[in-house]
Amino acid sequence: MLKQILAKLPRKSSKCDSFDTSGSNSCNNNTNSGNGIPFANSCTVIATRLNVVKRMSTAIFPTSIVAGGESVAPHIPFKDVSNAEKQSLFVSKLNLCCSIYDFNDPDKDSAEKDLKRQVLLELNDFVASGSARFTETAIAAVCKMCAVNLFRTFPPKSYLSARGESEDEEPMFDPAWCHLQLVYDLFLSVISQSSLDAKVAKKYVDHSFILKLLDLFDSEDPRERECLKSILHRLYGKFMMHRPFIRKAVSNIFYRFAFETERHNGIAELLEVFGSVISGFALPLKEEHRSFFSRALIPLHKPKSLGIYHQQLAYCVVQFIEKEQNLASVAITKLLRYWPVTSSQKQLMFISELEELLEMISVAEFEKIMVPLFRRIGYCLNSSHFQVAERAHFLWNNDNVLNLVMHNRQVIMPIIVSALERNSQNHWNKAVLNLTQNVRKVFSEMDEELVLDCQGKLEEENSKSNIAAERRRLTWERLEIAANYQPVTVPSNISGLVKPATCLVSC
After folding, report:
1. Which domains does the chain have, with CATH numbers?
2. 501 φ/ψ sector (left φ>0, alpha ψ -120 to 50, else beta)
């Protein structure tokens, strides 16, 4: 009975909901619709749009993303429509630019590529003119178009060493840059507009979008990394609510690079952005910022490719120490821990950075680290690599370093004078020997009595070590004599059983 009643009730017409490029639902029947569009063409359009969505890997865009946008044909120039229709045309052109083409084959789809490029140029001019109104629909369309064109997975690294280990390495350029550059310029122009409401845009420029954008910093094309640097800087300034997340995401990139892969193409660009970010930190520094300094920034001195981004890294370290001077001792302690014993080029960078830090450190902080610091500098003075030895000698040309040594000469001079004396007797390079004499003269002018006292103690230690060495030599001579083969007398009662033998006496 119940089934009979339900069978008599009117049923709703069945509809098939398909998600197009804008996230809207469309309905297609098995027969031709009233407007005469055949079913096969409709399926082709849907399949094309689904392929675009498959490439897009960002936040879900709302169904109203192109509301009213399809009423104006995207091929019409902006000047040929009324002001009321320009907004719809803007969205239509953005949707048209969601088509992706293969740029590895320059002859394939050349007409479509040229059309897309012309539309992208129109969009850039339209936004630059200030005529665009950034409603939620327009913002969503911009983000969707940028996501479809920009967000992609890079192929695995084909080289054996990390990029930048050799500064002469030829950069690789993306063949699709003629389109990618226009997309980047459009997105940068949009987020730079003062009329853009960050509270509305954050719905689409969300955490997922930012993560995908940061992943693009690993691009091997330096032009793309340069565009990304400008965009990240604008995003950090525009979206204040995303600042903690951006700092955390970049910290994770640094962690993974320093402690796991040691392979990333965009470390220099990220550090360049964070150089300006750090300069804006309020005082006193938050614990989050101190943790970033000690756990993410300083370990970047470890990788082999330090030379590519050392200038930006040193700038960031200096920015932190200008905020809080007590971080100088932390930085120097970590640098001594990561000291590159087997890499002369990295040692030169470390010494240069140490000199810059010593110009900013306070006397109280300097006293905490001066003993291990100048022991390391003493080793550098005696380095057989003449460039390292020269660079270590040049530290004494810095007035700030001399002042610090002057106030703590009772501790520092015994360490350095012994290194200078060893240099003057053993080093092979004449330029280093001349620099050693100059530093000895500076120390003598600073406190001649202390230098003479240090030299006297050093001579006493050398004489003691010479006496100890002579004792060891005599001891070894006696042992060598005792180790010679000597005959052993065999008792007479067993002489018939055992043949005479010799015994080796050793120690």
Report:
1. 327-481 (1.25.10.10)
2. beta
Distance in angstroms between the alpha carbons of the first and the last residue of the chain = 111
SS (H, E, C) 154-197: CCCCCCCCCCCCCCCCCCCCCCCHHHHHHHHHHHHHHHHCCCCC
pLDDT at 274 over 90: yes
Helices (H), 293-385: 306-323, 327-337, 344-358, 363-381
Higher pLDDT, 149 or 504: 149
C-beta separation of 346 from 306 below 8 A: yes
What is d(CA 72, CA 91) in angstroms, rounded to the nearest whole number? Answer: 9
The per-residue pLDDT for range 454-484, each reduced to its tens digit, is 888 888 888 888 899 999 999 998 998 888 8
Q: Alpha-carbon distance 413 to 182, whole Å?
A: 61
Please list, in sequence order, all residues whose beta carbon lies within 8 angstroms of the beta carbon of residue 159, skipping any fewer than 6 positions away.
Answer: none
Query: Quick one: pLDDT band at residue 337, thresholds 50, 70, 90?
Result: very high
| Cα–Cα distance for residue pair 450/471, rounded to 1 Å | 31
- CA angle 468/473/474 to nearest 5° reads 100
Instruction: Tell me if 251 sits within 8 A of 296, measured CB to CB.
Output: yes
Q: Provide the percentage of residues in the chain whose pLDDT is more than 70.
A: 79
| 63 vs 315, more confident | 315
- Does an H or E element contain 238, and which? helix 222-238
User: What pLDDT, on a 0 to 100 scale, did the predictor assign at position 163?
Assistant: 45
Given a cut of 70, is residue 37 above it in pLDDT? no
> What is the distance, to the nearest Å, from the Cα of residue 265 to the centroid of all Cα atoms in its chain?
7
Distance from C-alpha of 43 to C-alpha of 40, rounded to nearest angstrom: 5
Cα 431 from Cα 390, distance rounded (Å): 8
Predicted TM-score of the model (pTM): 0.77
Highest-confidence segment of 80-89, 346-355, 447-456, 485-494: 346-355
SS3 310: helix
Average pLDDT rounded to a whole number, residues 415-424: 92
Which spans in 382-484 are helix H?
A: 386-393, 399-407, 409-426, 430-482
Which pair of tokens denotes residue 492?
């007479």
Distance CA 392, CA 403 (A): 17
pLDDT of residue 404: 94
CA-based R_g, the chain, Å = 37
User: Are 345 and 307 contacting, i.e. CB atoms less than 8 angstroms apart?
Assistant: yes
Give the distance between the most distant pair of CA atoms in the chain.
132
Give 309's contacts (C-beta < 8 A, 6+ positions apart). 164, 267, 268, 271, 300
